[in-house]
Amino acid sequence: MGITKLITILLLITALFWSCDGKEDSPECQASDPDVTLMDIRDFNIQPSYLSALASVGALQNSFVSFSVETNSENLADLKNELKISWTTWQTISPYEFGPASDINLRANVNTFPVDSFSVLQRIENQEFNLIANDTKGFPALDLLFNGIGNSEAEVLAFYTGAQGNDFKSYAQAVIADILEKIGQVKTAWEDEYGESFVTNTGFATGSSFSAFINAYIQDWEQIKRARIALPLGLLTFETPLPGHVECYYGGYSQELALAHVESHYEIYKSVDHLGIQELVEGVTNFTGTDGETLDEAMVSQFELGIEKLSVVPDPLSETVLSEFDTVNEAYLALQDMVVLMKTDMTSGLGISINFADNDGD
Amino acid sequence: MTVIDALKNISKKLTTEVAIFPLATFRVLFGALVLFSTIRFWYNGWIEDFYINPSHFFSYFGQDWILPYSSTFIYSLFILMAVSAVGIMIGLFFRASSLLFFLSFTYVELIDKTTYLNHYYFVSLMAFILLLTPAHRALSVDSKLFPSIKSWTVPKWSILALKFQIAILYFFAGVAKLNYDWLFKAQPMSLWLQSKADSPVLGQLFILEETAFIFSWAGMLFDISIAFLLFTKKLRPLGYLAVVAFHLLTWLLFPIGVFPWVMIGLTLVFFSAEIHERAWRAVGNFLNLVHGSWFSDANRSVCSSWFIVNSSDSNRSVWSSKHLMKNAINSKLSTINSKPQTPNYTLSTINYKPLTINSLVLILLVLHFTIQLLLPMRHHLSDGNLYWNESGYRFSWRVMLMEKTGHLEFRVKNIATQKESLVEPCKYFTAFQQRQLVTQPDMILQAANVIAKDYENRGMLVEVYANSYASLNGEKHRPFVNPTVNLATLKNDQKRDWIVQYD
């Protein structure tokens, strides 16, 4: 009988598809072939960045050991220099706050600013070296400890040679070890299971690697313009600048860090010599910009405008936000226009809608 | 014939008694599907995400008292939903169950525009119609507990109304696809399919331009014609096959949850009473093997005798009550050697006088369907691009119709000092709410009011402006809300002249 057959066939089809229902990350429902772009992003962007970040924090630690043994101005200068290098290298992994990094809140652990200097100094005084709050550790805490506790190198040195010198050293050592441990965890995860699943979790749907990666990339870009520029400039506080909220208040190289951050985003975008976001964006056809430019051309010129505008902002940023509103604001606007390109045109062009909570659509 | 005669005639036809089987199937499947959907919602943690974590909600029609209140309250509603879904499924206290399900489900849906989905709206409507029908008269626990309600027939309108509501959904979903982007640019289908290029086997097809066009046109033709196919007896098997194929494909391609299963299940109501009866008998026989006495012998013989009589009846689609009575008598004679029957059966059928209630329900349904036919067309009253302004967008079966992304931040100006500050939506709304918020004008207006109120509560009178951009179907972003309009003083009106118009 036709109907019975029909129903049987339908049930079979349903059963066939049903077997693949459920959580999106169940292994039998994934395309098992690794995606070449994802492999390139992992092998040439993400893993090398974690490696070099880890290496530079390692160098920072070595430098600190030397400083601890021989607490002199030469070693302090060396230490400050290593801090600047590793903090700059951090900017190249900040865009990857997804997967293992977001599991442990890497960014918040390593780079929450402004540092709560009062708490840090109090904890040192009380010899409490376990690190609890994010705003008492990470690079900004090292900025305080190596650049901020005195007005001159001699004043800083005095803390490390004074009565509580060992306490200062212990605290700084704990902070460095914490950064090293956190970045190390993420690096290991990328070498293990996560790195493997990353390249096979293909497609652009919610929960896919591209979706996670691009969303993290955009969010991180928003962090640059918001936390590093808008906030100190007073854009979020009724035109009252907050110079103390710059990324590197004591060392005074916040603009350099921000620029490094923007440039690292541009590098990730271009991924010269291998596949990356740019190749995906080049495939977007429905976008027609002013003068017929493609989405890729629009993004490239916006990156370059952002770099250009940010380059002319002089350090220390904490003083520039007070004296040169327009210069900083122009950089802000250039970064902001990029947010719009990323969040509207790039995500719809790639078929990734910004979606942090999983839900049905219709 | 006068108008009144015509109406009487129609009403008579609509109140004709027909076999209950399709309605009973519908009741069971509907109960099962909404039960599954409720459990899935809970299991996915969405009660927490959507009703407990947010600190503000986007109410409909100014009904801002519809809130989750407390986690106890919202969880209780979901428990009520699940329990009443079971009630619907097994037909236990059906009237109360279906009413409670309708109320609790609709209440939850009305809490926040963020969670609006056409298929939730559809479930609400279906629950509403179902609660008006006597779907528990047979094949239900109620009919066991309260034998006096037992009847193997239901008025014709009760099945027809469900079919008609389904037809409205498909038809208007099809009409909505009759737009330039959908048909002649294959957008947003093209965007969506490109993002599925990694799919096994079919991935290579999805990146072809032709595939996007075929899908767009096929989707439109399917939606517009499917109700007609399902209503036509000869085309019904083909139509149903199309339903299954279409919804399985959408389920594979898009994250649309249980909706495909809902449609595949509920469109079964279009099949004839005989087919449903046969299915019920098959299930009945199976259950008898297991449980022994789910169907009493009497019921079974009535069931089967009807089927025999009617399949030999040349005019079998007319299941008038007269026929049924005659058939029942005939069947008694023809099956006189089979199991004994419940003597009350014929009596209760004869004594059943549904007309007054039927008339009331019919008037209610006429009103309901008038609204249903007008709502999807209300956007014609508004100017501007429907997809941009979204005036009259919801409750109109615009399903999977556009790809819209946006970016939004608010600018708050202190009226006293005239100084400005940027306010990011993330300070007030969850990530999921923001995603809906950035592209939907009425929500942007509500959000602006929330922010203005918040500052006022903290002692600062402010004007609220929006810096916003949106991109439609992958085109370059454009300014969305007019950045010079103070949204704090705007009420949630239908006139969207504070949107930068899409030419």
Offer a few descriptive terms.
heterodimer; A: 362 residues; mainly alpha; A middle domain of Talin 1; 2 domains; globular; B: 503 residues; 4-stranded antiparallel beta sheet; 7% strand
Oligomer: heterodimer
| Count of alpha/pi helices of chain B | 22
Number of strands of chain A: 0
Number of helices of chain A: 16
Shape of chain A: globular
Secondary structure elements and pairings:
The complex is a heterodimer of chains A (362) and B (503).
Chain A: H1 2-18, H2 36-69, H3 73-93, H4 100-103, H5 106-110, H6 117-125, H7 138-148, H8 153-161, H9 165-191, H10 193-200, H11 209-233, H12 254-270, H13 277-282, H14 295-311, H15 317-323, H16 325-350
Chain B: H1 3-15, E1 17-19, H2 21-43, H3 46-52, H4 71-90, H5 94-109, H6 118-132, H7 141-145, E2 153-155, H8 156-176, H9 180-184, H10 189-194, H11 203-206, H12 209-231, H13 236-253, H14 259-266, H15 273-291, H16 297-312, H17 321-334, H18 344-351, H19 355-374, H20 386-389, E3 404-414, E4 420-423, H21 431-437, H22 441-457, E5 462-472, E6 478-479
Antiparallel strand pairs in B: 1-2, 3-4, 3-5, 5-6
Could you characterize the architecture of this molecule?
The complex is a heterodimer of chains A (362) and B (503). Chain A has 362 residues and is mostly helical. Chain A folds into 2 domains: 32-195, M75 peptidase, HXXE motif (A middle domain of Talin 1); 204-352. Chain A is built from 16 helices and no strands. Chain A is globular and about 65 Å long. The model of chain A is unreliable at 15-31 and 354-358 (pLDDT under 50). The two termini of chain B are 52 Å apart. Residues 296-323 and 331-354 of chain B have low confidence and may be disordered. Chain B is α+β, with helices and mostly antiparallel strands and 503 residues long. Chains A and B meet through helix 1 and helix 16 of A and helix 3, helix 10, helix 13, strand 3 and strand 4 of B.
